[in-house]
Amino acid sequence: MTRIGLVDDHPLYLEGLRRRLLDDDRVEIVAAVASVEELMACSDAPEVVLLDLHLPGCCGADAVEQLVRRGLRVLVLTASSDRDDVLDAMSAGASGYLTKQAGGDEIVDAVVQVSGGGTYVSAALAGYLLRDELPPTLAPVGGSGGSGGSVRTAWPGLSLRERQILELLARGERDEDIAADLCISVHTVRSHLDRIRAKTGRRRRAELTRMVLEQPPTVTRRGEIGQF
Fold this sequence. Notes:
Elements: E1 2-7, H1 11-22, E2 27-33, H2 36-40, E3 48-51, H3 60-69, E4 73-78, H4 83-91, E5 96-99, H5 104-115, E6 120-121, H6 123-132, E7 138-140, E8 150-152, H7 160-170, H8 175-182, H9 186-200, H10 205-214, E9 218-219
Parallel strand pairs: 1-2, 1-3, 3-4, 4-5, 5-6
Antiparallel strand pairs: 7-8, 8-9
Helix pairs in contact: 3-4, 4-10, 7-9, 7-10, 8-9
């Protein structure tokens, strides 16, 4: 069971979220407060903090940084889907980002993934960021028997497979999910991730996620993945 803290200054949303999460035996709520300062005053520290970005006092990326410095994992849960808000939060050390349109099951799934050391950006939000922020510098991918997706030429140091893995990672998928999606082994996925880290200098999954959201390396279409 993961200990969580809820930080949101909208009383109705905070209470509704608290009631919804009380029904899930995967999490234990140790705090439900209106500010970062109130959370810091709590005697029982959470493992994961569900954080609204727009709070009184310490807020936004500053709030993320303050919580991360205390060794807490931060899952942003806010109304904003603005690209800059997502990137700023991930840059500040957030392990995940959800909008308040997320349902209870997705929120708990994200908490579990983040508590295990992973990252989570909702598929809808990641898809929106990856789709709408692509520049015109895209080149078609050649391949046997199909037109493939498109690959950003700004990432010449990464293979097509590495780019596909990065995109799936940015969508919040676990190594096991990526392996199943690409029909490769988990060991192969992790070997690719090790090479990606060596090439990019980004070690943490949150850093890799932010890199992809800032400058998406690929646009893949399921069912058009070649053999590598």
